[in-house]
Amino acid sequence: MTDPLNNKKTEYDIVIIGSGLAGLTAANRLAKLGYAVLIVEQHSKPGGLATWFKRKGGHIFDVSLHGFPVGMIKTCRKYWSPEIAESIIQLKAIRFDNPQFSFSTTFDTPDFTGILRKRFGIARERVDDFFRTVHKMDFYDDQTMTTGELFEKFFPGRDDVMRLLMEPITYANGSNLDDPAITYGIVFSNFMNKGVFTFRGGTDHFLRQILGELGKNGADICLNCTAEKILIENQKITGLKVNGRVIHCRAILSNANLLSTIHDLVGDEYFSKDFLQESSKVKVNNSSCQVYIGIRQGEKIDYVGDLLFTSEAKKFDPTELLSKRTTSRTFSFYTPAIRPDSDRFTIVASSNANYEDWSSLSPEEYQSSKVELIEDTLTCLEKYLPGVRAEIDYVEAATPKTFQRYTLHLKGSSFGTKFEGLKVSTGLQKQIGGLFHAGSVGIIMSGWLGAANYGAIAANDIDKYMTNY
Ligand SMILES: Cc1cc2nc3c(=O)[nH]c(=O)nc-3n(C[C@H](O)[C@H](O)[C@H](O)COP(=O)(O)OP(=O)(O)OC[C@H]3O[C@@H](n4cnc5c(N)ncnc54)[C@H](O)[C@@H]3O)c2cc1C
Question: Domain range holding 42?
Fold first, then answer.
């Protein structure tokens, strides 16, 4: 293979490590401002977790395009292009099915208000007060109250209400009842406010448009390029070692895992004791399993909703949600309405998972556990689509090990770090001149919207740094 760096310059203003949505968004902003920007991506495809893959039988599977909040429209318009924003469409029906309740919703405040009043018998004032409180929450609020305490305050003893309001958020970013209530409030306000949205045409179409914009704005991107060492002199960035070569630059934005950026790409010797102490408190978020299901060409499946949250757990149980044989999973249904240039139907089942449950297995156990995961998933799917097995001609499973292999994220973390990661991520720039981080951290900054917005925020910080350089 020819060296992907061959036709690239040896010096840029800014190098970005990783082409996740944060890295790409920052690159676009900075290139538009006139900086010479290079993105280096270790994988052969750009996008990070915002990715897709093709399989035999003509199937295209989206990995993380299950749904994002309405805010993505504004973010795409502002930081990418109006055309990209115009492809965002709303999902029509989000379905819940578990031993405590079963119904479909449009996933917005008016619909949730009606459901909480009519189905769950909660007084109107209480519901309004809850929505007002969470919509008002921001980063500067009290950070000591936990999400569990927030639910207990508004809906004491109502584990069914808590499940309705919490389970989708746990799927969306791995947060749980012990996390600070503000992380819930901010994510909930984004998500369960005006519905759930997706990108018409799929992730491949999205990334094609994104790469087109980057090219137009002059950013370079180099795939199959692994950042090995961030080079520092007198506590300032001087360059990056990539695939054994040195690229000189004045600033680096790492979109790679926060902890590997600190300990591996930089090295502890460059940080203050206090900063390392803070970093030692950072916990990575959980990982995921997925089962990708392809329906044979020519076959159709009945419409059972766009997203289906299903579980056999008696009540919301974070331990069950993460366990290897969990019955709690989300089915995403991809139809020609979502991918208009295809006549194919595909289904992706996602569940939250603990990395250790999969990393500790022998190769034989790992293979048989994947078979079990597929089997459990198809059995569950048949409850909603009887006879669907006969229409399936492709199935494949991904585990936390898969996510680790493709993104280099510690423990295959799907949603970056827990809340304490945000302070450390934003604190990097105060430790080393010209070093910045952006990407899924702190729960708030995770998901397509959080990562893209964090990339834009980091780009503004980098611009300030470069202006005063
Ligand atoms: C199964 C699953 C389902 C999800 N579903 C949704 C969803 O429906 N909606 C939603 O909003 N979010 C979803 N997410 C989360 C969302 O995909 C992520 O939060 C977001 O894409 C992360 O973007 P990021 O910028 O943090 O970078 P990442 O996507 O984490 O990318 C980081 C990039 O850095 C690269 N990299 C790492 N180290 C190096 C190195 N040393 N050198 C070069 N490159 C390097 C990696 O290869 C990767 O491309 C899901 C995630 C998973 C795993």
Answer: 14-50+204-283+415-467
